[in-house]
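Class prep. Write one:
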Amino acid sequence: MAKRNSFKLSLLSGTFSDDWEDLANSSSRRQLVETVVLGSVSVSILRWLASIAAIYLLILDRTNWHTNILTGG
């Protein structure tokens, strides 16, 4: 009787491990695609933000905003 139960358990554990492997493979592919897409979008947004900030700082530098604030005029 003990042999029969251990055989059932080994069959069940084999199917469970196969299912987990299939799930891991499919989810890892999906996660990789999502990471690449979201990563490229976030990098693009950060590049735009950095460009806008650089332009803003260049404009402020050309208007001598720091000197005008310190001298009051």
User: Anything to note?
Assistant: Residues 2-71 form one domain. Residues 2-62 form the longest helix (61 residues). DSSP finds two helices and no strands in the chain. The mean pLDDT is 73.
